[in-house]
Amino acid sequence: MHFQILKIQFKMNVNPDVVLVGSGIMSATLGTLLKQLQPDITIEIFEKQDTASTESSDAWNNAGTGHSSFCELNYTPQKPDGSVDVSKAIHIAEQFEVSRQFWAYLVQQNLITSPENFIKTIPHSSFVWGEDNVKFLKKRYEGLTKNILFKEMKFSTSADEITSWMPLVMKGRDENEKVAATLMHRGTDVNFGNLTRSMFQYLQVQDGVEMYFNHEVKKLKKEEDGRWLLKVKDLVTGEKRKLRTKFVFIGAGGGSLPLLEKSKILEGKGFGGFPVSGQWLRCVNEDVIKQHHAKVYGKAAVGAPPMSVPHLDTRKINSKEELLFGPYAGFTTKFLKKGSYFDLLKSIKTSNLWPMLYAGAHNIPLTKYLIEQVMHSHEERMADLKLYYPDAKSEDWVLEQAGKRVQIIKKDKDGKGVLQFGTEIVSASDCSIAALLGASPGASTAVSIMIELLERCFCEKMKSAEWQEKMKVIIPSYGIKLNENEAVFESVKKMTTEVLHLEE
């Protein structure tokens, strides 16, 4: 379900408490949390496009996987000694459980309705072939299932059992090939675009909240009194306005880095961005789509960025069942799908020139990989697909454009540039401004990321008895490590499953 938010008002508060830049899942989550914690807070939201959530949060622009580490092999790297590190996977799994609690709270409070419009149960599987990969997957399974968050995971090397989990993947495969798979029935498919727009629908009817589409924040400057002066342009009329605020959150996806640079805060210096584009193969044969009901993730090619981990994916987009394979990564100079080809060039400053040059020189294999991906023909993409679906027919698949991601380049302790995957909050020392940089697992962990931002930038209020009490209502497990408390985990899992209309 894709809809446009209708309420657009043009009366601007002169001094709102908070300004949110961008209409993605991060801004929606932060705005909703703040309004629940402090109902009288005033918020202004600015979005360049004419509709909310058209970039990274939109369904066609991301994987839609409820990233819980059930199937994503890149979250469990293999160490030089052959062991598998599962710590990151456990951390991400716990973060996703926090997201589920927040979304369930929104439904319970009737702040948003119809959870089936944004989340549904889809089994999560990992699939590998070859003796070394089979050994890796078994070690991963053994490491994860020691933790209560993964105790339901199944592992198999039986062709018959794996066929029952993912028939398309096994159909036409060499019977002598060594294969292995894991399965988690309680995986999810999430339409983050619908979820984001639902939160903004709630926010827009709240007192003290104004949202402006076709408005771009052109400049921002710290004033002597500690407030931020923002210059905003109406892209339809050309009108320019000024406003002041106590706190700015830059959650503009690929557009965050340029605004962070304009803020000139010391903490933002040295950051650069490495943009990566994406594409999907989309199945157009309804008979094939009906034969697959899982998110099946494999191992990324050597040199590939995390966002290009291959997966054969059951999706539900705009009320329609879809089957996608990909994503195919590529090199781009745009920071946003609707951005400019000059985005990368304009982001280069004296403060980040050396880190970007250093990171570029030390990631040539990645650049080569991305350029090769751009040059791939349909036949070459189909060859990749056939590794996961051997009987795939070329005429059943068409190419769809996915979103853009800007991977972080940051200085290390020696001042050199390091390409960093994941997300990072960059905030000023006085906590008056914060920006979110990076990509995956992003949307799935938005709630935990925004709670971290609140604890950092609204620290005194977050320590107050009032906010602490409210946080425990919003997130029942707040302050408790779910992966160490089975009773609490089982309780919140049962609650969120029921409220969000998911399957056991």
Shape: globular
Biggest sheet details: 10 strands, mixed
**Cα-atom Rg, whole angstroms?**
22 Å
**How far do the termini sit from each other?**
25 Å
**Strand segment count:** 21
Helix/strand-derived class? alpha+beta
Range of strand content? 15-25%
Kindly report the average pLDDT value: 88
> What is the percent of helical residues?
25-40%
Total helical elements: 16
Low-confidence stretches: 1-13
Question: Secondary-structure map with pairings?
Answer:
Blueprint: E1 18-21, H1 25-37, E2 43-46, H2 87-108, E3 119-121, E4 124-129, H3 131-144, E5 154-156, H4 159-165, H5 167-170, E6 179-184, E7 188-190, H6 192-204, E8 209-212, E9 215-222, E10 228-234, E11 240-245, E12 247-250, H7 256-263, E13 272-283, H8 286-289, E14 295-297, E15 311-317, E16 320-331, H9 343-347, H10 353-361, H11 364-375, H12 378-386, E17 397-401, E18 405-411, E19 417-420, E20 423-427, E21 433-438, H13 446-457, H14 459-463, H15 465-474, H16 486-499
Parallel strand pairs: 1-2, 1-12, 2-8, 4-14, 12-21
Antiparallel strand pairs: 3-7, 4-6, 5-6, 9-10, 10-11, 13-16, 13-17, 13-18, 14-15, 15-16, 18-19, 20-21
Helix pairs in contact: 1-6, 1-13, 2-16
